[in-house]
Amino acid sequence: MALPQVGIVMGSDSDLAVMAAAGEALEQFDVGYEMTVASAHRHPEKTARYARGAAGAGLKVIIAGAGGAAHLPGVIAALTTLPVIGVPVATPHLGGLDSLYAIVQMPRGVPVATVSINGAFNAALLAVQILALENRKLQEELDRYRRELAARVEEQDRRLRPKR
Predict the structure, then answer these.
(1) Is residue 16 part of a domain?
(2) Contacts of 154 (CB under 8 A, 6+ apart)
(3) Which residues, 6+ apart, have CB-to-CB distance to 68 below 8 Å?
(4) How far, in Å, CA of 124 to CA of 85, rounded?
(5) What pLDDT is stored for residue 159 in this prediction?
(6) 156 within some domain
């Protein structure tokens, strides 16, 4: 696998079941990544170190997933100029709406791109799209991926039609 270009950060290892999908998507495109646990609330110093050092470590995009108060993506975005993609992780109490609202309501000047609740796979695809802006090979892989998606839709449609 290539050197890490994407950092996948989660608030606790209980988020791994959701965030693993980001790694799976990045592997499909042979994009190197690293995973780490860094809690905005339980270990803010580690979170700050990670965010401030990410660009220097060669990362280009950060995917941050958290549930509940879900401040992790916003705190990271406040400490780096790298693009940050927030993944709201579903919670047992409010189904992830709390996480979604916490991530999507960033103040002006500190943006966090936000995907759907538990949308780590799409977060990784967005990271690939960002990287593809300066990587022709990744752009070609994305084009191929989209053609495959379209072909699957056509196949599903064919299966629904009566045979003549």
Answers:
(1) yes
(2) none
(3) 91, 98, 99, 102
(4) 9
(5) 93
(6) no
Residues spanned by the domain of 131 = 4-135
- The pTM assigned to this predicted structure is 0.95
Domain total in the chain:
1
Instruction: Answer yes or no: is 153 within a domain.
Output: no
Q: Does residue 88 fall inside a structural domain?
A: yes
User: What would the two tokens of residue 76 be?
Assistant: 């990271």
Alpha carbon 79 to its chain's center:
18
CB of 37 within 8 A of CB of 13? yes
**DSSP labels, 68-106:** TT--HHHHHHHH-SS-EEEEEEP-TTTTTHHHHHHHH-P
CATH number at residue 69: 3.40.50.1970
At residue 69, the pLDDT reads 92
What stretches in the chain show pLDDT beneath 70?
A: 1, 164
pLDDT the model gives residue 2:
75
pLDDT of 164 reads 62
CB-based contacts of 128-133 (< 8 A; 24+ apart in sequence): 128/25, 128/26, 128/29, 128/31, 130/60, 130/61, 130/83, 131/5, 131/6, 131/31, 131/60, 131/61
Are 59 and 4 contacting, i.e. CB atoms less than 8 angstroms apart? yes
